[in-house]
Write a structure and sequence with these properties.
single chain; about 220 residues; alpha+beta; Pnp Oxidase, Chain A; three-stranded antiparallel sheet; globular; binds flavin mononucleotide
């Protein structure tokens, strides 16, 4: 099957993409409205845009009635938000925040998550999440004639729960239990890991024969 995007509707291509790009990590974005109302929402169009300075991005569409989603409005007007990692334990609460509530609805209250004060930004962090990243809005880009946005945020501070760190101070992902979004109503867990070390050091320019012999040795 071959698909030319311009020959299809937006919703068809959305469905296609959400099946093609999987699994997706989930940014659980906490923000504050200009009036000071707490907001929480999940976004699986989420990635690292730059490692240093650390810049993350998430991509909100519009509400069904055409209005901007609250997370975009808040990131734009207040210039701040927090990205919290979603664990398997947090899945149902996260899902409860994914309705298009009016901006005056506090989604911490709806979902039962606990707000905890951030250090460098005004929006609170989600206490139940073992990884919380305080961000300052770096820029917001618009795509698809204003139907979609990409919000970039520089991480000003990482908060890591001690329980997810190994002896060397690295994050032990197995202790985090983050979940990933698939398509439709499906998610995946991250508890089934496998190891694949790189046979050659990154940064070296290998000769083709060297690569072949390393691959032969590993086979
Ligand atoms: C797991 C999950 C991932 C989602 N990812 C996105 C996304 O990447 N972009 C988007 O526009 N909406 C996404 N949504 C829907 C938003 O979370 C939903 O529209 C939410 O109400 C937006 O809230 P806000 O208006 O408070 O920003 C997702 C929903 C779920 C459950």
């Amino acid at each position: 099957m071959q698909i030319i995007p311009s020959e299809h509707r937006r919703d068809e291509i959305y469905k296609l993409l959400t099946g093609c790009v999987v699994p997706r990590p989930i940014a659980f974005v906490s923000s504050l409205s200009p009036a000071g109302v707490l907001n929480l929402a999940p976004f699986s169009f989420f990635s690292v845009a730059c490692p240093y300075p650390p810049i993350l991005c998430f991509s909100p569409g519009r509400r069904p009635d055409g209005r901007k989603k609250d997370s975009v409005v808040n990131a734009e007007t207040t210039g701040e938000f927090v990205i919290n990692v979603v664990t398997a334990q947090m899945a149902e609460g996260m899902n409860a925040t994914a309705f298009d509530f009016e901006p005056e609805v506090d989604e911490f209250a709806i979902s039962g998550f606990t707000p905890v004060a951030s250090d460098l930004v005004k929006p609170p962090r989600v206490a139940e999440s073992p990884i919380q990243m305080e961000c300052r809005t770096e820029r917001i880009l618009e795509f698809g004639n204003g139907h979609h946005y990409v919000v970039f945020g520089e991480v000003l501070k990482f908060h890591l729960n001690e329980a997810i760190l190994d002896d060397g101070g690295q994050i032990n992902v197995a202790a985090v239990h983050p979940i990933g979004r698939l398509n439709r109503a499906f998610y995946c867990r991250t508890d089934d890991q496998f190891k694949l070390a790189r046979p050659l050091q990154p940064g070296t320019v290998p000769k083709l024969e060297e690569v072949r012999s390393v691959l032969r040795a590993g086979a």
